[in-house]
Specification:
Layout: E1 4-9, H1 38-44, E2 55-59, H2 63-72, E3 79-83, H3 89-103, E4 108-113, E5 117-118, H4 121-136, E6 140-145, E7 156-159, E8 166-172, H5 177-186, E9 189-199, H6 200-210, H7 212-223, E10 226-228, E11 231-233, H8 236-240, H9 247-252, E12 258-262, E13 267-268, H10 273-279, E14 288-290, E15 293-296, E16 302-305, E17 309-312, E18 317-321, E19 326-330, H11 337-346, E20 357-360, E21 363-371, E22 374-381, E23 389-391, E24 395-403, E25 406-410, E26 413-417, E27 422-425, E28 431-434, E29 441-449, E30 458-461
Amino acid sequence: MMTLQPVLLCGGSGTRLWPLSREAHPKQFLPLAGEQTMLQSTLLRLGDLGAVAPIVVAGEEHRFLVAEQLRQIDAPTPTILLEPVGRNTAPAIAAAALQALSNHEDALLLVLPSDHVVRDEVAFRNAVGQAIPAAEAGALITFGVPPSAPETGFGYIQAAPGEGVRKVQGFVEKPDAATAAGFLAEGGYFWNSGMFLLRASRYLGELGRYRPDVLSAVEAAFRGARRDGDFVRLDKEAFAACPADSIDYAVMEKTDAAMVLPADFGWSDVGSWSSLWEVSPQDESGNACRGEVIAVDSRNSYAWAQRLVALVGVDDIVVVETADAVLVARKDRVQQVKDVVAQLKVAHRSQVVFHREVYRPWGSYDSVDVGDGFQVKRIKVKPGARLSLQSHRRRAEHWVVVRGTARVTRDNDVFELYANQSAYIPIGARHRLENPGADVLELIEVQSGDYLGEDDIVRYEDQYGRT
């Protein structure tokens, strides 16, 4: 059997699941349907298929989230392909195919969005195994999901009659309700899962046949890529010049090699709060709750809470409570969350991009209070990690250690602080914070000045490539 190469597509901002999913921390990095994040679950469901270390295609801003979350599950060291800009799935998969060919003579690419739910992992692995012979023979296979309702939010695949892997007779973009109902009644139509199994060389050949402009741009971006450990940074200028297109439009709808394997493995793209309610465990009243939630005389609702939330006498609603935003919506209107996000973008609100707790490669910070001329943060630094050597033009900082050991650089002085000890960093001083200990360092930072934005940072040295 050829090498089975997982390709995890990890782009996208997942704004339909705001306020949990945000641009800096989108849904693929959240534990929405279990204890693991959706990215982690995507890789873990491969189980005993015998796949090699994954190739992950992600945006530059998410590179450390990808690396850290895969490290947490002891995943084989991945290759993380970094897109300087999003160009949809056809270029992303092409870059992964070029990377796979540089690692192996050829490989079967198992292309998986990293933000979908698969509830029957055994059935999923069986479907992959069933599709492998046809893919090795040159078929470009997509996995079709038997529809359970006339869903208008999914694309559809019309399959030729028969059993198992079969020819694709047509692709249909998201239909209206009447058309979707007709598909369900007629049979032979399947939801397009966005999962693929195809030989790397075969995909590149078909892409070159139908979209040579896309292939040429991706090849240029791959040739000009910079390699930094496990990160492969595609050339920005070449990749930005690549036309944006999906694999469906660019290849699958044109090639005569397109085939589909219908398979029921409990799939959902978790594209809205209502779809997350559908795949979540529910109580006897149909409520799906995460966190500390009390439901009284309430039915068929979804609640996610970081603090105590009580539902009283309400049905068919969604309540999502985070540290800095609350969403309350009727379950049949949750698609309009995107309109909320649009208004927040127009108003330049930070809640579109960041949670109150912001993750960095060295740890995280939580903005617990802010006012005129001051800001208070709770900072956590991972063992052995250190922030960049930096200075600020318009703010001073006061650090108070809560637990752990802090090694502080302040201009020419280097010293250590312990619990209940503090240090003052004046405006303009070059400074650095490190954690030399084996436990997480926690401290309170009080900033003061006439401007407290995150862009008031001058970096001189940084082990994470941010200078």
